């Protein structure tokens, strides 16, 4: 007798989660869609049954099981929970009882699907609430018609419609076929905030069980029939071209099928490499180690970090491109009682996601199918359609879980490379980047240098404020962009009321030119702007002889900011700070949210600096899940601590020096201070959450160190043990 085949945990979960015919409800476009919905992938890799599509977003099978599509990627920030949490609130279903499904790339159905700019909630919360409310009203109308009663006498509760006078009830599964024939309401009635049962509550994350029991499918886990594996040898100087290669030894490895030159698009450059394709990943990696490539590295500069930052410092002497100006800075600065000047420097950084880049592509003559950890499935769909001449509706981009993204996995190069390889070998392929590939190829967060000048009045108010920033302009990386255009993010991170209190100000930038590719990194320019601006604000407070928080209060004449400062003082115990600790504060604004952070430091017995505690106050306005907000702010603080005190990317002879975590050091758990996160309750519009918690940490930490040691830190990263 043959032994019985055992199913893996993932296979078991996948098989048992799929049952029943589903009908789809929802709304993005104002009219109805017709026809069958495409097969869509759930979080553990299976395919839900074909559905009769009313529009999009919500499907209900005849047993009453509700599935909700999430149009944004889940890379640790909580979208997998908060998107269905908003829809389920208005739909009146229990979040514990629903399926959650990743939507494939389709901007016409789902709007923007790019997970970036902390936009998932702030960009679509009203729309997502209306989707749930529309579906609820359609189900209510279907029930009322079935009973032949007044719709006003019916209400939704826990996946059922109940007739209030009689207590009779239909489940959503009983009603969905009839509801699918109805037109969605144009203006569904939304709940008052006081009526919420799910939104605003610290509900458990829906992805946590999947990630702890092995059911979650990340890009690197995904497998499809007939799939081959590829790794690519790329130029260590990034822009290098393949002059020639010798694959004689590579082809001696069992399982190696192909060795081919490939290209991928990085902004306006075609980056070249040599792909080794094999039956399994190990064979491909072994084959790559034996590959010999001769690179043509001519035609571009081979810069070192020293040359890059020397160039930025030289650029500061040039006339800047003005972003925002008001009044007459020079005149006010010359008349000021006290003048303060400082220069700050922030480094290049890698994204260093725990899951390196990877992507599966299956390119046929008339279609492309993609699976992977992708932040912008709609962007990838459009990009591949244009580059490879395949109709948009024949390009399917499926999202998996992402092991971190931070902006890197919104880029289009790695799906393009996978598609090019698949087309060349006429087979589905998974392209896997090693940690070293991921770390050294970029694009990177750009380094930046800031020259700050300000003048104070006799009373200690800012009369003149000026900054010039020298950094690579990310926008200039894109083809067709005017290389002389100013950086439209020069003031990102600076609190908006400062523009009213600084009557004479000027913000300028110099676009430093370099072949090093740069792009978004968590909180984008605010990650470096925040360090420079809030460190300088602190220097001005001390120059004015004023308490740093009160100095900020004086210049942030806005009720929302005043309330945040009041709460920050209370939560941190700011007015009772002791003599043997250093206390620092920073307040930044980006992605429509305001975050204040207070950092406490002290000396250890050996005299080295210890970070004791971080108190963070997040004002993101209307919010969905306070626990996820706290998690995101905690993660932002840890990431910011690493960037401030642990790691940066250096370049030597045009090549990235740091290749793995042995040299690009991450903070260890014993180095993480106590972190206390609070969320402001107010009636403001929803702001971002995933990124705004990062920019205040570095300046607040440096300001705390100054408070303790009287030493200003103006260059990142720095070694805490050497302060």
UniProtKB/TrEMBL annotation:
SMART domains: Ald_Xan_dh_C. InterPro entries: Ald_Oxase/Xan_DH_a/b (IPR000674), AldOxase/xan_DH_MoCoBD1 (IPR008274), AldOxase/xan_DH_MoCoBD2 (IPR046867), AldOxase/xan_DH_Mopterin-bd_sf (IPR037165), N-heterocyclic_Hydroxylase (IPR052516), OxRdtase_Mopterin-bd_su_IorB (IPR012368), TAT_signal (IPR006311). One of its GO terms (molecular function) is oxidoreductase activity. Gene3D superfamilies: Aldehyde oxidase/xanthine dehydrogenase, a/b hammerhead, Aldehyde oxidase/xanthine dehydrogenase, molybdopterin binding domain. SUPFAM superfamilies: Molybdenum cofactor-binding domain (SSF56003). Residues 213-299 form the Aldehyde oxidase/xanthine dehydrogenase a/b hammerhead domain. This is Oxidoreductase.
